[in-house]
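General statements about sequence and structure are easier to judge against a single worked case. For one protein, we set the task of working out the structure tokens from the amino acid sequence alone. The sequence in question and its structure tokens are set out directly beneath this paragraph.
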Amino acid sequence: MEDLSKIYSKNLFFTACVFALGLVIPYGRGNTIAGLLLIFLALVLYGYIGKLLMDVIKRLSHKEASIKELKFLFITLAVLCAGAYFFIGVIDGEEQMISGLREIKDGRAYDLHSFDGLFDYFQDLTFTYLNSVYYSIVVMATLGDSKIVAEGWFPRIIIAFEVGVALSLTIFKIGEYYSDRSSEEAKERERRIINEVQNINPSYIVHPEAGFWERTFMKLTIKSSRRRRARG
């Protein structure tokens, strides 16, 4: 896995760029070239964070990856989907796709060419983004929030993607972790049995990587030796 600071800094960079785009969106309305440029920048950003998410998923699919590395998946997935909810909240003034998320007023309520108007918009934009992060986290935890409701097909696709990725990889990694742990415990029990046999009779030596029949013979030998010792 990449250095921790790189994972966190990349997510922080994506968050800052998403917020900056949200801040300039009102200035690009009515201008076709500016609108296309903003769409292009948004696609570049999602290509960037999408690649980071794929790198995290690939890393988690390796057996040597630790269960603790699931936190990188949760952080990256939450940030990615929060950005998508945020853009929907900024663009969807009528709240037809997600209701209860947007804190921004109608564009005519702000004088974006004055400091006070820009500050008010910045403040409402900040609350909208915080709502997006909160909603992304509760969706990933499959809790949901009755005050924020996804009503359009596009946000529902994002929600299904977020829940599907988080649950499937979490179940896969936890299942793999406990499976490996059970295997290690079984091997440790076999090692203890072999050590006991060696203490009983040093001539009873079986290699730890011995086959099934050899291990079975050893277990039967142990039981037989215990019975003889009990009778003696």
Remarks:
- The longest strand covers residues 98-99.
- The first helix runs from residue 4 to 28.
- Residues 224 and 230 are 10 Å apart (CA to CA).
- Strands lie at 98-99, 149-150.
